[in-house]
Specification:
Layout (H helix, E strand, L loop, with lengths): L14 H19 L2 E2 L5 E3 H8 L4 H6 L2 E4 L2 E5 L4 H10 L9 E10 L11 E10 L4 H17 L5 E7 L6 H13 L7 H9 L13 H5 L10 H16 L5 E2 L11 E9 L7 E7 L3 H4 L7 E7 H7 L12 E5 L2 H17 L4 E3 L6 H11 L3 E5 L1 H5 L2 E6 L5 E5 H8 L1
Parallel strand pairs: 1-5, 7-8, 12-13, 12-14
Antiparallel strand pairs: 2-4, 3-4, 5-6, 6-11, 7-9, 9-10, 10-11, 14-15, 15-16
The structure holds histidyl-adenosine monophosphate.
Length: about 400
Amino acid sequence: MIRAIKGTRDILSPEVQKWQYVERKAREICALYGYEEIRTPVLESTELFARGIGEVTDIVTKQMFTFPVGRESITLRPEDTAPVVRAFVEYGLDKDPNITKWYYLGSMFRHERPQKGRYWQFGQFGIEVLGTENPAVDAEVIELLVHYIEACGISEHELQLNSVGCSVCRPGYTAHLQELLRAKAEQMCADCQLRIEKNPLRVLDCKVEADQPVIDALPPIDDFLCEECRAHFLAVQRYLGYSNISYVRAKRLVRGLDYYTKTTFEVVLSGLGAQNSVAGGGRYDGLVEELGGKPTKAIGFALGLDRLVLAAPEASTESSGVNVFIVSMSDRAFEFSYGRVQSLLRKAKISCEVDYQRRSVKAAMRQADKKKVDWVILVGDDEMKEGKVTLKNMKNGEQELLLLDEAVQKLI
Ligand code: HAM
């Protein structure tokens, strides 16, 4: 038997109905907030991610599915912000004075050790707003995220908020961290020792227990933020207050991608185990320029759909399947069921299915129960001659003999 490869999985019923539900909710909320869909390719040039996400990030150094094609190096997208920015620049939207508001739903690929909520191929729903530095947009993006998670039936969530400064003030902070950390480097894990030299901010994200006392003693970025970043962050918090979005200040939240500036945030859910971060995002005011476009301020988030579906209650499920099961009691009745009954029902937009297996009526009724249909139409030889069928209500067991047209009318 050939199985799905490690880190990937098939999504079948009933889980797939949850996916359909959360995908529909994503499209609905994006329409409400005025976001248009963008679909970027799954394949991109490797350089896009190396430049976009950062050469020394975990994603770029360890997690990308990269392979040569001719002379090119190609990568399966590990995230969609860099591709979205590539498309933004490629279509010249960086020269458009208007704001661009996009959303996406699709598969991303990261080569990480698989576990609950962490896969090689996973789904993301994300939004990106390009073309404004207005802090009210930061609040809008966060509000959309929180309202979306709630619309998916999840009320227990925690929004964590931070600012990581900008190219003016962050270098002073990272230099200070580096100086403090170099003195402690020997006590820290091997990853942190590397981070201290290459990307000291990422030390704040270390989960190794023994490193925590050193990290806890580091100063927060607040004391280093420049006037502009400070004012921006205060404004974001003020706008969040208008829509009653509650959050915790997470002074150590630095995120794993290098493009972030100013506002960063994550939403964590309880009950997901180690992979409890369902969504993350922030500003990336320098990325458009980094990828060859006109300087353009931008912000967005991405949410992991696999994790959301794991946490979503059973009620967050698309109603599925057929509503009427059509059971035929003879060969002639089957011809009538197939040729006439089901086509009339479908014309009336009533979902239905004929029983193809043609076992006993008893077996067909058991099948109808399993399918959880509301109605069964029984087609018998004699009634059929008079254009009649038996309509059975599966909820209360009542049944009546009706002209086919009457039965259809009753189901509309
Ligand atoms: P990220 O934090 O790398 O951000 O990923 C966002 C979400 O994708 C995570 O919170 C998690 O739910 C999900 N995720 C990530 N890796 C995996 C995995 N291996 N298996 C299952 N789910 C996973 C980004 O991707 C940024 N592009 C977000 C962003 C958009 N920032 C600005 N705009």
